[in-house]
Design a protein that fits this description.
The chain is built from eleven helices and twelve strands. It is of the alpha/beta class and about 270 residues long.
């Protein structure tokens, strides 16, 4: 039986085994997908060990995606740009790394949520690893503009240097933002600390759609704030999680699972 796993630390709450288990059942693929907690100083050894033992593919999650980027022998172009790897397989004795997070977000926005990106004014909040992974697929969809706003302006400016050749991208401080935007994507980790990025309320108008890359069993603080400011629609990152998994499944197995029933089952459990 082919063997896959997600590796992270901690890994106890990962939904990936369940998602890939549902994909496998749906497509009739014969595979096993488990969760492995790698030690903080032994991650690289454990990845190599997994493939030496005949493992077929790994997903990599927090906090190892950047280390996985360093570790693999070859990277797909979108992973190279993203600076992070979340999907690994072995080919002719080499480890190949890819990143499916960005396409997962865009697929959820367009395919599941019915959002338009073309010609839209998009605000991306945050400039860390999560945001770096989504800028290329967003800009590919030809938005009117993408503004990256971050607490630390220099990090947003670095992303403009890296991705600015792909489309209309600019950096801003929170207080300099002029809204409203058509779509706001929160890619900060602020809500992990129960905090909100201090955005001016003018970024939200009655037509603004808001996507928080986080999710939880309760509405995220960012989405609650956005709704209170009158946003037209708020969305959380559960669909992105399922879509990035579907893209990884496709890379490994060559089959695209139907994500809708899987997302519905996960939503029910939240
Ligand atoms: P990740 O890989 O999840 O993106 P990261 O690279 O550490 O994690 O980035 C975290 C992002 O959340 C950064 O943009 C960070 O802002 P700074 O670059 O200024 O540190 C942002 N962030 C975290 N806590 C925040 C808060 N309380 N308010 C606003 N932004 C916050």
């Amino acid at each position: 039986m082919d063997v896959y796993a997600v590796m992270g630390n901690p890994i106890g709450h990962s939904k990936s085994p369940r998602i890939h288990g549902l994909f496998a059942a749906q497509t009739g693929e014969n595979l096993r997908y488990t969760a492995i907690e790698a030690s903080l100083d032994g991650f690289e050894t454990e990845v190599r060990h997994f493939f030496q033992e005949g493992g077929n593919g790994l997903n990599i999650t927090v906090p190892f995606k950047e280390r996985a980027w360093q570790l693999v022998d070859r990277k797909q172009p979108r992973a190279e740009l993203a600076g992070a790897v979340n999907t690994i397989w072995s080919l002719n004795g080499e480890l190949v790394g890819d990143n499916t997070d960005g396409i997962g977000l865009v697929q959820d926005l367009i395919g599941n949520q019915g959002c338009m990106l073309r010609e839209q004014r998009i605000l991306v909040v945050g400039a860390g690893g999560a945001v770096r992974g989504i800028l290329e697929p967003l800009l590919e969809r030809k938005p009117a503009e993408v503004t990256v706003a971050n607490r630390t302006l220099a990090k947003a400016e670095q992303l403009v240097e890296l991705f600015g050749h792909l489309g209309p991208l600019r950096a801003s401080r929170f207080e300099d933002l002029d809204g409203p935007y058509d779509l706001i994507i929160n890619g900060t980790s602020a809500s992990l600390a129960g905090e909100l990025p201090p955005l001016p309320t003018s970024v939200i108008g009655p037509h603004t759609q808001v996507y928080d890359m986080m999710y939880g069993n309760q509405e995220t603080p960012f989405n609650r704030w956005a709704r209170e400011q009158g946003a037209a629609k708020v969305m959380d990152g559960l669909g992105m999680l399922v879509e990035q998994a579907a893209e990884a499944f496709f890379l490994w197995r060559g089959l695209r699972p139907d994500t809708a029933p899987v997302l519905a089952q996960l939503r029910q459990r939240l």
